[in-house]
């Protein structure tokens, strides 16, 4: 295993590895019997119903395996018997925290098959709502990070500031968590009056929140000693396992689909920085997400300043029948890379949809990563990997 | 100046939040005593404008959950002008929406060609008995009183309505 | 005056008064701490209002909680060791009551006046470790076992810094008697200036800081709450307890916090007294009798200040991992407190 992160201090890393080795030696000499711990489906630490079967030796994990499927809802089967508008409303519920972001790749794939492009104003508003979902999602991550590690205050601050974003989404779309706003060819409705000024004020509040969390949580020496050097994912392992999103960028890989494949959204019209971190440990993953939240607020501000006027719906028939073909579109969702592979036979609904969800690949690294760590570190690592069960199990 | 350790700065954040809550009030709303008004477009409950409904069944067919139950029969109505043909109209017998199944997606409201369904931001209609969540057409038309005017649109929006 | 009053009450009356006094001394601070700090202060730090429905501003919430816990079913796991399971919470609470016996509340208002009060207090505070270990092991639950073992390791590790920090106070006061320590602080003078007494928090600042950290760990409060790490082990050694037994653990946690804070204020902040120079007293016999009523109130206030700091730190920091915790105790706190003792001893001899 190659070691990344000279910034981390090789001494700290070596001492951690030496401690693990010493523990393993002690366990071997004392001939302690392993204990199988079920971090079961009902547990405050896992974001939902994930079951991790861990075999422990003392306080060290010898072998761990995630067992998912407790929340499988049969999305891909459901899509075979539903029409496109119905699927749009169902798909919101895969990653329920950043829900607008789930609709977008699906609609983009359908538009690709129909050879229709949404008008510029619709693209702008889609990107604004996408980034708002990203902010809502990652803000909750920042709060939840505190709870997993024992700090009970950040989560309330996170929910307080997330409410502002949800109120914005509700004023535009009608639903806080499940907007169901995207349509093939554009959007359902235009923005209500006052949205732009309100959003700018909320973005300012969110930047304050990011500063608060940075002081309260990230600057805390205890937090740093709990997360630095824990769960290091080297760059090549991350690429092999198909990680995406902030997990990949925290291992030093400069990969952001917003910049590389804008896909008929407005990301190529704004300037933003792609944050990476060379270390690849838990602290790096959390830090990258914090910076991405700030960056998202800046993106929204830029988009609001340059939003064009015009219609929000292209010329599409009332009853939409998508022509035959196949299309795959993936976007940089809050959790990682989410993609939809849509196969159409010219009907009201698709023939088959395959959903590539980010968290499924993100959690696949858990067995490799959890070998040899201490039990409290399991929670730190899972918290920093950040998955949503709805996204894993679909 | 010596760097203040992060531990101490973190304490400052919580202390500041506490002082702000004591002096300026909390960010929470004490629900039964104070209520926040939801935005105009909030999807609370669906209201039915009985006069516009022609029982075309489009909403019932497009609901992903199949929670709209419509029954209608054909009836004869007098001709529009003197000496014209007798018209055949649909008379609505039953229009139920089962709110225990409804997922508040709004497809029925979008799809209705005659503007008979509207969203209303009312949300306090929970019942102790799940059977009472099936709202029949009288109850649905009562919700029409709570339907607000559509909000004004932001600058740059197209003025032309679809 | 109180001595003459007490002389007229028969022995059983006196014992009854002492028992009631002990209950009030332990439970009243516990209740106030739970309401003021756990419900209200935590909520204000989290930008919300806390319980508001039960009573005005939620003041009756604690009684509502007590009632709720009392009416719950008392579940004892089938494979648990029943006797140990049932007496474990009582063992934890007993150590609190034993601790409060030695805290002086006023010039004549105390339960006992040991010559070795400090020694007794430190020894008795270790009984709760036994109770926690009993709770964790007898629960027949892997999570509880992990929690109990972690707790035992942590509490024993942090006993030492606590003891060593207090040694500095003992050296400076020259006595282990709690009452005499209070008198020495309030009657003494600092660098020749007697206006503020001689509170050991200033001269023994390092000892005070080490003591505060050590009691944070003894109470298993964040950042040292690995044993009760909620997001991993649900409740650690308390997982299998329900109903009245859980209530005893809960009240015990805050009662112990109150009592430790009382000991901290006695040892470092001057206990029940104000500097004697304000009233022109020179020794404990001079102290007026109304001090017996006002003294407990002053001690209560100082205890509230100490608990505020404990709780503030609890709500702000994430928790340490077990090995980091141990490393902190053994490699950092103990050398610092040993150095503190050395410096104190040298200065005491020199000045």
What distinguishing features does this structure have?
heterotrimer; B: 162 residues; alpha+beta; Alpha-Beta Plaits; three-stranded antiparallel beta sheet; two-stranded antiparallel sheet; 5 strands; elongated; C: mainly alpha; 68% helix
Structure commentary:
The complex is a heterotrimer of chains A (394), B (162) and C (351). In chain A, helix 3 runs antiparallel to helix 4 (100-114). Chain A has one domain: Cytochrome-c3 Hydrogenase, chain B, CATH 1.10.645. Mean pLDDT of chain A is 85; it is low at 1-7. Chain A has a three-stranded antiparallel beta sheet. In chain A, strands 6-7-8 form a three-stranded antiparallel beta sheet. A two-stranded antiparallel sheet of chain A has the order 4-5. Chain A has 394 residues and is mostly helical. Chain A has helices spanning 10-30, 75-78, 84-91, 100-114, 120-149, 154-173, 195-218, 221-227, 235-241, 246-249, 257-260, 282-305, 358-363, 366-369, 375-385, 389-393; strands at residues 35-39, 51-57, 60-67, 182-183, 186-187, 325-332, 337-344, 352-356. Chain B has a domain at 45-68 and 96-146: 2-Layer Sandwich (Alpha-Beta Plaits). Helices cover 22% and strands 20% of the residues of chain B. Chain B has four helices and five strands. Chain B has helices spanning 6-24, 58-62, 107-111, 137-142, and strands spanning 45-48, 68-77, 87-98, 117-120, 134-135. Chain B has a three-stranded antiparallel beta sheet. The mean pLDDT of chain B is 83. Chain C has one domain (2-350). In chain C, 50% of the residues are buried. In chain C, helix 12 (243-269) packs across helix 13. The model of chain C has no long low-confidence stretch (mean pLDDT 83). Chain C has 351 residues and is an all-alpha fold. Helices cover 68% and strands 0% of the residues of chain C. The chains are: A mainly alpha (394), B alpha+beta (162), C mainly alpha (351). The interface between A and C is medium-sized, with 31 and 26 residues.
